[in-house]
Amino acid sequence: MRHCLALLVLFLSLPLSAAQLHLELGATTRQWSSAELLDHPQARDISIDQDVSYKQPMHYRAVPLAALLDGVSANDHLQAVALDGFAAEMPAAPLLQRGPAQAWLAVEEPGRPWPPLGQGKPSAGPFYLVWTAPQASGIRPEQWPFQISTIRKLASVEARFPALLPDPKLPADSPVGRGFALFQQNCLACHRLNGAGDAQVGPDLNVPHNPTEYFRPEYLRQLIRDPQSLRQWPQAKMPGFAKSVLSEPELDELLAYLRHMAGRRP
């Protein structure tokens, strides 16, 4: 019995095994272990003044994401998939730029895990997309995916999911069209709509019903701004979208898109 306990203690004291990052960049695929990334020639220690996920300054060992995206051009579209099914849709151009805003892949060291994201929750590792000077390019919170397992190059959202598209007869600069762009930036990482999308975290926002149909307008706005103020449960994942992230005019446009799509259900 003592021998078994000794082995258990030894096992628990060992560092976590190296995680694997999968890159699927069209014709090329590559797997990077956390050890390989930590030893990457461009890896360096960086400081994040206000980390989106941890809500405090953080320090990471990280690699410029552009250094890992061989063959990706500014016109391409990328998707970062997390372990929990979160799927962030991102144009490649901001990810490739070297400043002033710059994307970094932070790598969790197996023997030095990051803090948990909350009580009973895991850390942001093993891989976390963070930004230095994010305000310089208007980087939004949904562009900070954590617990990343895969980054892949795909066709655009419009090409892959036509069921998300608003009526093509609408003017190009309509509030609904701008709301569709905001939906892609802020909602599609967690939610599907009309069954379209790759996310597996939140409910579909149009099937069987659209939230504009079953929420009073003031409560729907409150839900988007501060979900926990409207309904609480310990494992809630939806973040609030403050006015600094989603302005009142932008929220109006997002809701215009949702109301419009209530009439475009399959």
TrEMBL record:
InterPro entries: Cyt_c-like_dom, Cyt_c-like_dom_sf, Cytochrome_c550/c551-like. The keyword Acetylation does not apply. The lineage of its organism: Bacteria, Pseudomonadati, Pseudomonadota, Gammaproteobacteria, Pseudomonadales. It comes from the Bacteria. The keyword Metal-binding applies. PANTHER family: CYTOCHROME C-553-LIKE (PTHR37823:SF1). Residues 174-262 form the Cytochrome c domain. Keywords: Electron transport, Heme, Iron, Metal-binding, Signal, Transport. Residues 1-18 form the signal peptide. PROSITE patterns: CYTC. SUPFAM superfamilies: Cytochrome c. This is Cytochrome C. GO terms for molecular function: electron transfer activity; heme binding; metal ion binding. It comes from Pseudomonas inefficax.
